[in-house]
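Here is one chain, start to finish.
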Amino acid sequence: MDWYVASKAPYTPGHEIAGEVVYSPDLQFEPGDRVFVHHHAPCMECDYCLRGEFTSCPVWRSTRIFPGGLSEFIEVPQEIYRADVLRIPKGVSWDDAALVEPLACSVKAIKKAQIGPVDDVAVIGLGFMGLLNAKLSSLYGRSVVGFDLVEERRNICVDGWGCDEVYHPDEFDIRRKFSVVITGPPFKSAIEFALKIADRGSRVILFAPLPPGESMSFQLFDLYFNEISLIPSYSAGPDDTRIALEYIASGRIKPSELITHRYPFEETPLAYEKARTDRSAIKVMIDIEP
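Its structure:
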C-alpha cells in the first residue's frame, strides 16, 4: 500500500526483523542471543490490553524501533523489550525468524475468523500474506479456496500452501458460498467479491483497509438479515507473535519457503521496486550482512 508507506515518510523502513543482541540492560538476554523483535508493543496494563485488544493500546501505537529494521543497529524501547522480544529457538533460520511478525498477523486474523472443522474458507488475494492466511486456514477448516488474478500465485497456493482449489475471480460461480471469507487486497473490487460469496451467518475478515478517504457502499439490510459479520484484523499483538514462533519452530509453517527474491543491503531500492512492481515477487528479503 503505497499510501501507507508515504504517510510515514521520512523514516527508516523495515519492521520484519531478527538479529543478534549487542547490549541488554538486564539478564533477560545476553550479547549474541538471536532474537525476534516486534516493531510495536502494548503496555500490558490498560483496559485495551486487559481485553486482549493490544493493537488499540495507546502505548502500542506510539512505540517503534529506532531508526528502523534496515539498519546495522537498532534501539529497542523498554515497552517492546519487555513485551515482545523473543529468543529464537535453535533450528529456526534467520529468514523464518524475520517473518514471525507477518505470520503473527495471520494468526490474529484466523483467530478472529474462528475457523472450525465445518467451515469452508475463501481467501481472496494470494500474495505473501494471502498464502499465509490460506496455510493457517487449512489447519483448522474443512476446505480452503483461493482467489487471485495471477496464475503463478494460484499455483503456489494449491501446491502445498493451503488451497484445495484456486480460481480467477472472474471464472468463479458466485452462487457458491463460504462461511469464512478473508479478503486481503485493499481494493473495493476485492471486498465486493468477498460479500458476494459470503454465506448466511459467515465471517468476512478485512485484512487490509481501503486508502484514507475512499469509501464504498453495501446493503446493511442484506448483512443484517443474513447475519454476516464484517471483522477487521489489524497487525498483531504479543500473544500472536508467540503463537507464530511456535508454528515456525515446530516446522508446521515455514514462511521462508515463500521468499522468491533476495537482495544485499546495498541494493535495497531495487528490492523495494521488485516488491512493488513484479507480480512474480511473493516475498523479497534484504540481508543486512553478507
